[in-house]
Design a protein that fits this description.
The complex is a heterodimer of chains A (423) and B (185). Chain A is an alpha+beta fold and 423 residues long. Chain A has helices at residues 6-16, 25-50, 72-82, 181-191, 203-212, 243-251, 270-291, 297-306, 319-329, 362-371, 385-388, and strands at residues 102-109, 135-144, 149-155, 160-163, 167-170, 197-202, 216-220, 224-226, 231-233, 237-241, 256-258, 264-266, 311-313, 339-341, 344-349, 352-357. Chain B is globular and about 50 Å long. The chains are: A alpha+beta (423), B mainly alpha (185). Chain A binds chain B through residues 4-5, 8-9, 11-25, 27-29, 31-32, 35-36, 86-90, 92-93, 293, 296-298, 423, and chain B through 1, 3, 6, 19, 39-40, 43-44, 46-47, 50-51, 54-59, 64-65, 67-68, 71-73, 75-77, 79-84, 121-124, 126-127, 130-131, 134, 146, 149-150, 152, 177, 180.
Chain lengths: 423, 185
């Protein structure tokens, strides 16, 4: 053929071969989340003003720019995630989860290998602790694949329990890194809850997931800070956490809220408030992940594979199993996950304040019945914040619903979404 | 015969843009506009079109990293509008062209810097020669030439993707090809 363009077209095709061959699906998801965040700013500003939380007038969103203030260490973490590429052939769907309901013991391991020492939130790493690995987040997540429902039960780290073979102690002292057996036995002996699977998530995995969903936004009624972990949120309104900063936030045990005069007030709920914030954060993170398309089989698989070194599971839990459970989660409305914590009363043992479990109440038993496989999640006692407040027992330090505003607004209002469901 | 007359304007059938992949009739770029939407649809569009779109963006920008950014951003826009767009493939292509337009200046600066150092990326000298020649084209001419002679789109399709008139496309093609010819020979 004597086509004058054959040669040009041939050369263009040749040059095009030098193009990159794939883009990161995770990065696409991050960009979707970033677009939503930009659009949400006006909406949130007015929403916050409407509920009268803000009196100062101007609402500043995301005072920190996620990219600008992150360190070399944290951006290399982001880089590890964003180099993921979706497989050429897309699996049609998640593997189907076994319909049987299962309990996952989820433990946050606080080894601090992933917190860059020069990060603005390096304090979250608690470097004085050395290499000893501990946990301050212990929860059992129950999944009902058949009904596509989930529920969460949290254990305060200071919970005073009987540890098999050791006598009484704090529940987190039963934790050994990479070996859930004693902790699982302790939970069974004290609360009758059987652990089917184990997920140990360390800081690296947590910060990477937060960064992979493009940051997680949380609404605050007042400015808050924790000088112990270098956390300083200077304005009320929605604040978007990057991975490193989010870690400081969910680990914070000395959070203070700042009143209009600039006066700081401590969060007196201590560990219970922290658990409430953790649960609130996880719910928002799940919502963000759903909105950003992360709950897509190919992306979920790449992310899980990338996190393999940072997540320890029991031997029976394969990546396909994990994916099948992620497939259950993707159909769940994050607002519809009942969240409980063990009810407690304060106790002083040897000069240390600990929390003694109080599990004889009707509400607590109804909640525990779910995790003991005695009742379906649809029978869950009302965990809604509005009614949860009325469950407050006079004289008790605990609340049934950790989502209820506990103390001066340090627990974010679950009814305020930092970005909504717009298409 | 001038370059202008040589344009294959007679091509009226939509042509597949996935240049290498032997895609089926359900080619995402030419699929029935009324087909039902699903999340799986986006994922298969992503799997099918990421490489062709990267190649298109690479030809338009001359830079791999910039092409990746443009394509990621384009897919993000498609994802957000998934339920309201008629022809996702064509919309995606338009998004890529748009993203390349906004990145063109930045990419051009990067390309100039690139020439200051030895470039190992473009191995073949003939490819480097073409890359340089493309880089010298004004953006509109370059876009028109690439869409026409890489994706084999007709002028109507190019006009739609570039958001301009067919007349502008024709003159951009004409001038672009003449300039390319002068540079290359």
């Amino acid at each position: 053929m004597n086509d004058p363009f054959d040669e040009l077209e041939h050369r263009l095709a040749g040059l095009a071969e030098h193009a990159p061959t794939g883009v990161s699906r995770v990065e696409v998801a991050r960009r979707v989340a970033a677009h939503r965040r930009r659009r949400a700013i006006v909406r949130i500003g007015s929403a916050v003003a409407c509920v009268g939380v803000v009196t100062g007038g101007v609402v500043t969103i995301a005072g920190r720019s996620p990219g600008g203030s992150s360190t070399a260490g944290s951006s290399s973490t982001i880089g590890a995630v964003t180099t993921l590429t979706a497989p050429a052939t897309v699996p049609p769907s998640f593997p189907v989860a076994d319909p049987q309901a299962l309990n996952f013991l989820v433990v946050g391991d606080d080894s601090h290998a992933c917190v860059a020492p020069n990060s603005p939130w390096a304090g979250a790493a608690d470097p004085g602790r050395g290499e000893a690995s501990r946990t301050d987040t212990i929860m059992v997540m129950r999944l009902e694949p058949a009904t596509r429902r989930a529920a969460v039960l949290s254990f305060p780290r200071d919970l005073w329990v009987e540890i098999p073979g050791r006598g009484d102690g704090r529940i987190n002292s039963a934790y050994t890194k990479n070996d859930p057996s004693l902790l699982a036995q302790t939970i069974y002996d004290n609360f009758g809850v059987v652990v089917d699977h184990y997920l140990q998530i360390d800081f690296c995995a947590f910060t990477r997931i937060v960064d992979a969903v493009g940051g997680v936004a949380v609404p605050f009624a007042t400015p808050v800070r924790d000088r112990n972990v270098d956390l300083d949120i200077t304005a009320a309104g929605c604040h978007t956490f990057t991975g490193d900063e989010a870690l400081a936030y969910v680990r914070s045990r000395h959070l203070e809220w700042i009143d209009e005069e600039g006066e700081a007030h401590a969060d007196e709920s201590n560990d219970l408030g922290r658990i409430a914030r953790q649960q609130d954060f996880l719910r928002r993170m799940l919502g963000t992940a759903l909105a950003s398309g992360l709950f897509d089989p190919s992306i979920a698989r790449s992310l899980i594979e990338a996190l393999q070194t940072d997540i320890v599971t029991d031997r029976g839990l394969t990546i396909d199993d994990l994916l099948s459970f992620v497939g259950v989660l993707k159909d769940i409305d994050p607002a519809d996950i009942p969240q409980y914590q063990i009810e407690t009363s304060a106790l002083t043992v040897g000069g240390n304040s600990v929390l003694e479990p109080q599990i004889d109440g009707a509400e607590m038993n109804a909640a525990l019945a779910i995790f003991r496989n005695d009742a379906p999640i649809s029978d869950a006692p009302d965990h809604d914040a509005a009614t949860g407040a009325s469950d407050l027992d006079e004289g008790s330090t605990s609340v049934m619903s950790p989502s209820a505003p506990l103390n001066g607004g340090i627990v974010p209002d679950p009814n305020i979404e930092c970005w909504g469901s717009e298409a | 015969m001038t370059f202008f007359e040589a344009h294959r304007n007679s091509v009226s059938e939509p042509v597949p843009t996935a240049t290498e992949m032997d895609v089926d009739d359900g080619n995402a770029l030419t699929a029935d506009p009324r087909r039902p939407r699903s999340a799986a649809g986006f994922e298969s569009l992503f799997a099918l079109e990421q490489t062709p779109m990267l190649r298109l963006a690479f030809l338009l920008l001359g830079s791999g990293p910039a092409a990746e950014e443009a394509v990621q951003e384009a897919f993000a826009t498609v994802y957000e509008r998934w339920n309201s767009i008629d022809r996702p493939g064509a919309f995606l292509r338009t998004c890529v062209v748009n993203e390349c337009r906004s990145r063109h200046r930045r990419a051009a600066v990067a390309l100039r810097k690139r020439h200051l150092v030895a470039e190992a990326d473009v191995v073949d000298e003939r490819h480097a020669e073409l890359a340089d020649a493309l880089a010298q084209l004004p953006r509109q001419r370059r876009t028109a030439v690439v869409l026409r002679h890489y994706l084999q789109m007709n002028t109507a399709e190019i006009a739609e993707a570039m958001g301009t008139s067919e007349g502008t496309v024709k003159s951009s093609l004409h001038r672009g090809l003449r300039q390319l010819k002068e540079t290359l020979r």
